[in-house]
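Appendix C reproduces, verbatim, an entry submitted by the partner laboratory led by Prof. M.T., so that reviewers can inspect both the input and the predicted structure.
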Amino acid sequence: MSSSFEKRGWYEWVVTLGGLGRIVPMPGTVASLAACLIASVVAIPIWVVGIVAALGLFTVYLYIKETQGVDPKEVVIDEIVGSWIAVWGHGLSYALPAFLLFRIFDILKPMPVSTVEKRLPGTWGIMADDVVAGCLSNVVLWLLRWAFGLGG
């Protein structure tokens, strides 16, 4: 990695998932897909999501303070948290729809995702918009499952 990676060390490793956010095209999409697949195979407890979200708040704060970034594309820990929320409680067979819904909400940023991103400063906005996108995705997926009689 670059010397800046070595300089920032552990917190850059956390926010970029070991550099993944720097080496792949569409890092948010790649990280989201990986997170949805992992969370659908390994039931991630909600407390783990909370710990990773708190770690994300702290490490993203350090990272954007150092880099003067607003919402750097290489920062993907927020996508991990949002994706885990999107797939939470649905299981492997719903990983792809959870992923697609999350990416739609994360990219298009409908209200309330856009509202949270704009109203919360810095690190809070970076993390919170993905949390809200994940929550919306999860609820919409439950509604779709219920509407189509798929165990919702």
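The chain has one domain: 3-147. Additional entries are available on request from the coordinating office.
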